[in-house]
Amino acid sequence: MQQMLQNIKALLEKPSNFSIVIHRNPDGDAIGSGLALQTFLNKLGHQVSLISPNEVPNYLKWLPKTDQIIIFEENPELAKEKLSDADLIFTLDFNDFSRVSGNFTKYLQEIAPYKTFVMIDHHLEPSEYAQFKFSDPEKSSTSEMVYDFIVNLGYKDLIDKDMATDLYTGIMTDTGSFKFPNTTPHTMCVAADLMSHGINHNKIQIKIYDSFSLNKLHLLGEALNKLVFLPQYKTAYIALSKEELQKYHYQKGDTEGFVNYGLALNDANFAALFLENDDEGVRISFRSKGDVPANEFAKKYFNGGGHKNAAGGRTKQSLNEAVNTFLEKLPEFKSKLIHANI
Ligand SMILES: [Mn+2]
Questions:
Q1: What's the average model confidence in pLDDT over 231-259?
Q2: Cα–Cα distance between 30 and 25 in angstroms, integer?
Q3: Could you list which residues have their CB under 5 Å from ion ligand 1?
Q4: pLDDT per residue over 157-205, tens digit each?
Q5: pTM of this prediction?
Q6: What is the Å distance from ligand 1's center to 187 Cα?
Q7: Less Cβ around it within 10 Å: N or C end of the chain?
Q8: Domain span at residue 327?
Q9: In angstroms, rounded to a whole number, what is the distance separating the alpha carbons of residues 326 and 126?
């Protein structure tokens, strides 16, 4: 680790072109860690492009400089030009090229043999594309890891208020406001140090969690009415069709957090949210309590993965078929679901 940091530090010494890539459907951690790393590298005198596969969700657009993020889907030529010019490519908050999806994945695979990659990520089972691999599933978030990265390189003094806001946002969203099991004493120390930079932590909370549109709240009402609880599996799920989403003028990010309501049920140890989407089939989010392995379930049946308590997957099946697959596979996890250690 120390040697790897020394080697990177040497690479950061002369002004260079860098790119930072984050995952598709970027969340607070991807955007927060990406923006903070970009600012940090800018301060060291580098040209840095931050590239997202698709658009920044509305609830994160208030973060400074999100308007400068290059969106691969909208501007693939510019993104490719930046990546092909990059002396180093940082990939943040994902463990495999497939997480940027589609043509973006193909492009990264194409250039991988000629490029040097730095992975900073906290997902399980990292792929082997990065020459510099900072992978730690024990960390709360990639934002916590970017903080450690900067501090361990000896540049703690470069952290400013905007960077602290970015990193705090990432840690706060990935830990569910410091309540998920991934929150460690170190996480709290990092958050405390970030707060000491004069960030408005209450404003961040309000911007993320208390800034719903009326449509979103009405959609949440519909989702909660549709919540199904299966006591025999201590499992709750919500399935929303394309039509239901359209009825409430669904915008990307509107269903953020909905899956957690299933888990809010006192007897639920596992929760799923099924979303029907035109281009992508059905997307499913999973949440679990204690030692129920949401990521194993997502990986085994829904081409996905993630963390033990928060995972996601997708399928080309119809919404009904996807729910039926879910219901058929629950019995295999029954003892884990019923006897969860919390
Ligand atoms: Mn993350």
A1: 93
A2: 9
A3: 29, 93, 141-142, 174
A4: 999 999 999 999 999 999 999 999 899 999 999 999 999 999 999 999 9
A5: 0.88
A6: 13
A7: N
A8: 214-338
A9: 26
Give the Å distance between the CA of 8 and the centre of ligand 1.
Answer: 22
232 Cα–ligand 1 center, Å = 32
Span from the CA of 174 to the centroid of ligand 1 (angstroms): 6
In the chain, the number of structural domains is: 2
Determine the distance separating the centroid of ligand 1 and the alpha carbon of 151, expressed in angstroms: 19
Residues in the chain: 342
Residues in CB range of 97: below 8 A, 6 or more apart: 105, 108, 109, 112, 127, 129
Examine the domain organization and report whether 65 and 185 are in the same domain: yes
204 and 220 co-located in one domain: no
Q: Say whether both 78 and 28 belong to one domain.
A: yes
C-alpha 243 – ligand 1 centre gap (Å): 30
Q: How many Å lie between the centroid of ligand 1 and the Cα of residue 29? A: 5
Residue/partner pairs of 210-216 with CB below 8 Å, 24 or more apart: 211/59, 213/251, 213/254, 215/248, 215/249, 215/250, 215/251, 215/254, 216/248, 216/251, 216/254
> For residue 122, how far is its CA from the centre of ligand 1 (angstroms)?
7
Contacts of 299 (CB under 8 A, 6+ apart): 305, 311, 313
Q: How far is ligand 1, taken at its centre, from the CA of residue 121, in Å?
A: 7
| Residues 115-158: tens digit of each pLDDT | 999 999 999 899 999 999 999 999 999 999 999 999 999 999 99
